[in-house]
Specification:
The chain is α/β, with parallel strands linked by helices. It has two domains: 7-76, Ribosomal protein L30/S12 (60s Ribosomal Protein L30, Chain: A, 2-Layer Sandwich); 84-247, SPOUT methyltransferase, trefoil knot domain (Alpha/beta knot, 3-Layer(aba) Sandwich), CATH 3.40.1280. The protein has helices spanning 11-19, 36-47, 57-63, 84-94, 109-121, 139-144, 160-169, 207-210, 230-247; strands spanning 7-9, 24-30, 52-55, 72-76, 99-104, 126-130, 154-157, 173-177, 194-199, 215-217. Strands 7-6-5-9-8-10 form a six-stranded parallel β-sheet, with helices on both faces. It has a four-stranded mixed β-sheet with strand order 1-4-2-3. Helix 1 (11-19) packs parallel to helix 2 and helix 5 packs parallel to helix 9 (230-247). The longest helix has 18 residues, at 230-247.
Length: 248
């Protein structure tokens, strides 16, 4: 069964939801749970890299409103995630210079929602996030995005590098937003098919991801503070891409 908070519960119910392709945001499991069905569920969570957390039974009782949860409660995402391969193929068939956005572990839901809103406003064709380590697509994210989360495809991948390999195979250039860059954003040609990569609030872009990109770009900073809020920096990058494309 499913309640108003898009939560489902029960071992078999959660297993069947996963097998049917439902987008599961997170699974809460009772500590010390065992048995064949639990083993089957654990295998699915590991295989599909679905986020999970072991919690006391009291939390499961609250999440399920004291229903017979059998030691497991799952949160279903309010949106359906897109397939990245299919999205890239469709976008390249429709236009010659699509713009994509890759988020490497944005953790704050308000930043995430603001980025989604700006991305939708600037014509970004799709946003890529990782299965784990990224802020969830939940009610607060959707509210902060002003509903834009319903209008732009969001793709989940096991690892950010998987997405970068797919972009490279499609000859889409990779541009990383990083303070460590020597080139300024305005020196990079963003008029062709491009995926802009934005890093997390605290650590920026993973070094292994930075090794794969075509260009690293920074924003010129004139004040004493050395960095911008991640959603503001993302907006600056996306609107520079729009400026170049309109000029072209």
């Amino acid at each position: 069964m499913e309640n108003k908070q898009t939560k489902i519960f029960g071992l078999r119910t959660v297993i069947e939801a996963i097998r049917s392709g439902k987008t599961i945001r997170k699974v809460y499991l009772q500590k010390n749970l065992g048995g064949p069905l639990f083993g089957e569920l654990s295998g699915l969570l590991k295989e599909l890299v679905i986020s999970k957390s072991f919690v006391p039974i009291e939390k499961l009782n609250r999440l399920s409103k004291n229903q017979n949860h059998q030691g497991v409660v799952a949160e279903i995402s309010p949106i359906d995630f897109a397939d990245l391969d299919q999205l890239i193929s469709t976008c390249l068939d429709q236009e010659d210079k699509p713009l994509f956005l890759v988020l490497d572990a944005i953790t704050d839901v308000r930043n995430f929602g603001a980025i989604i809103r700006t991305a939708e406003s600037t014509g970004v064709k799709g946003i890529v996030i990782q299965n784990q380590g990224n802020a969830p697509v939940n009610a607060e994210t959707i509210k902060t995005s002003a509903g834009a989360a319903f209008n732009i495809p969001i793709c989940k991948v096991s690892h950010i590098k998987d997405a970068l390999f797919q972009f490279q195979a499609a000859e889409i250039q990779l541009v990383a937003a990083t303070e460590k860059a020597t080139d300024r954003l305005y020196d990079i040609d963003l008029k062709g098919p491009t995926a802009i990569i934005i890093g997390s609030e605290d650590r920026g872009i993973n070094p292994s991801v930075l090794k794969m990109v075509d260009h690293k770009a920074c924003l010129p900073m004139q004040g004493s503070i050395g960095s911008l809020n991640v959603s503001v920096a993302c907006g600056a990058f996306l609107y520079e891409a729009i400026r170049q494309r309109l000029g072209a």
